[in-house]
Design a protein that fits this description.
8 strands; about 50% strand
């Protein structure tokens, strides 16, 4: 599976103009870092939301599709590799997907 993970690793600067939001407004700036850990991946988001408010979030886990509690937040998060080679992460709150 390492060959599937390698293309995702690194530091990425997101262009809000290219994002497709289903709900809400896109943030103004975002730098997204993805690193390998002993049992999966670690994601770090350093960004400014749509109102310019800074945010910093670190999360991660195994790429096995299992929902797990996210420490410090009232959500569960799952991470999985998809057959087409993409990666999916989903945050759930009270049974509703709040971030994908």
């Amino acid at each position: 599976m390492n060959h599937l993970i390698e293309p995702f690793l690194g530091v990425w600067e997101l262009d809000p103009a290219t994002l497709k939001y289903e709900k809400g407004r896109p943030g103004r700036r975002a730098v997204y870092s993805i690193f390998k850990t002993e049992d999966g991946l670690s994601f770090e988001l350093d960004a400014d939301d749509a109102d310019g408010k800074p945010m910093h979030v670190v999360y991660g886990g195994k790429l096995d599709g299992v929902d797990r509690p996210h420490e410090g937040y009232p959500v569960t998060v799952s991470f999985a590799m998809v057959e087409d080679g993409s990666m999916e992460s989903v945050a759930w709150k009270n049974g509703v997907a709040v971030d994908r």
